[in-house]
Amino acid sequence: MKKIHIVLLVFIALSIAVLVSYVADLTTTETILSAKQKQGKVVSITARLDKSYANPIEYNAISNPNLTSFYIVDTLGNKSKAVYYFEKPFDMEKTEQLRLKGRMNGDVFEITAKDGILMKCPSKYKDDPIAAQNILTSN
Predict the structure, then answer these.
(1) Residue 95: which pLDDT band, with cuts at 50, 70 and 90?
(2) Is the pLDDT of residue 38 over 60?
(3) φ, ψ for residue 20, nearest 5 deg
(4) In a domain, 135, yes or no
(5) What is the Cα–Cα distance from 67 to 78, expressed in whole angstroms?
(6) How many Cβ atoms are within 10 Å of 72's Cβ, its own excluded?
(7) pTM across the whole model
(8) CB within 8 A of 136, min separation 6: which ones?
(9) What's the start-to-end Cα distance of the chain, in Å?
């Protein structure tokens, strides 16, 4: 074999290894029911806070600052308790939508600080359509 063939084979092997490592890190958006069927596997869920509870978010910075628990409802109306092993995100109560990455453990969706939460913030012009219109016409 020529040296060029050996270099080309090594390059192809490295390319395949890089692609496999990226594919292993991909997750799809699931519902709470489908996440329950994939116990222990990392999945992403799009949900919102379940505000039917008197206190939908439980967080005590004094007793355990790295534990936030809350209740969620996914896009199909399925409900679950979620536990985030990190401090409560700022203005979590005001968010419209949550993108949670974690794993189901029984009936509880567990999120580590490594996995995380992405919050969709409410629009500051949602309640004031006149202000939104003024912004659009001034540009």
Answers:
(1) confident
(2) yes
(3) -65, -40
(4) no
(5) 23
(6) 20
(7) 0.67
(8) none
(9) 65
More confident site: 135 or 69: 69
Q: How many domains does the chain have?
A: 1
**CATH code of the domain covering residue 79:** 2.40.50.140
Beta strand segments in 11-130, E:
29-30, 43-49, 57-60, 64-74, 79-85, 97-105, 108-112, 117-120
pLDDT digits (tens, 9 = 90+) for 69-94: 999 999 899 999 999 999 888 888 88
Query: Which residue is listed with tokens 């995380």?
Result: 116
Domain assignment present for 20: no
Q: Quote the domain boundaries for residue 113.
A: 28-123
Cα–Cα distances in angstroms (integers) from residue 69 to residues 48, 64, 82, 123, in the given order = 13, 11, 6, 25
* pLDDT surpassing 60 at residue 108: yes
In a domain, 6, yes or no: no
Q: In the structure encoding, which two tokens stand for residue 18, read together? A: 């890089």
In a domain, residue 37? The reply is yes
Secondary structure (3-state) at 62: coil
Which structure tokens are listed for 37?
A: 């069927």
Q: What is the pLDDT, as a whole number, of residue 27?
A: 59
